[in-house]
Amino acid sequence: MENADSGITIHLVGVLKITTGIEQVVMDLKDNDSVGTILSRLAKMHSVLSQVLYDKSGEVHKYLNIFVDNKPVLQENLNDIPIQDSTNLTLVMAVGGG
Fold first, then answer.
1. What angle do CA 94, 24, 98 make, to 5 degrees?
2. How deeply is 78 buried, as exposed, middle or buried, from its count of CB atoms within 10 A (0-12, 13-18, 19+)?
3. Considering the domain 8-93 in this protein, what is its CATH number?
4. d(C-alpha 18, C-alpha 12), whole Å
5. According to the 3-state scheme, what is the secondary structure of the chain?
6. Reported pTM
7. If pLDDT is split at 50, 70 and 90, which confidence band does 31 have?
8. Which residue of 16, 51, 87, 98 has the fewest CB atoms within a 10 Å radius of its CB?
9. For residue 98, what pLDDT is reported?
10. Which residues pair with 25 in a beta bridge?
11. What is the pLDDT of residues 49-80, one digit of tens each?
């Protein structure tokens, strides 16, 4: 990256951090990147993430909570949510029990 303010930082929290051993990834931003394209690029960079971010049908796992700069986003429109330089993307897998 050219400077510390370019690109995005992806934080893996809770179960995602524990199961993958990855806490944070910094990626360069490409033209027209969206939340959806970032997730896809992340899964290609770290194959272990492709197994936890996506379900067996290739869709983003329904229990994956996604936050852009601490604001939750809906999965229905991930490819329509643009990403800007210095964005923080946080990924949290919902855990149930009872």
1. 15
2. middle
3. 3.10.20.30
4. 9
5. CCCCCCCEEEEEECHHHHHHCCCEEEECCCCCCEHHHHHHHHHHHCHHHHHHHECCCCCECCCEEEEECCEEECHHHHHHCECCCCEEEEEEECCCCC
6. 0.87
7. confident
8. 98
9. 58
10. 10
11. 988 899 999 999 999 999 999 999 998 889 99
Tokens of 15: 């179960």
Closest CA to 91 of 56, 50, 58, 33: 50
CA distances from 69 to 11, 38, 48, 59, 89 (A): 11, 14, 24, 23, 6
| 8 A C-beta contact, residue 64 and residue 49 | no
Sort residue 59 into left (φ over 0), alpha (ψ -120 to 50) or beta.
beta
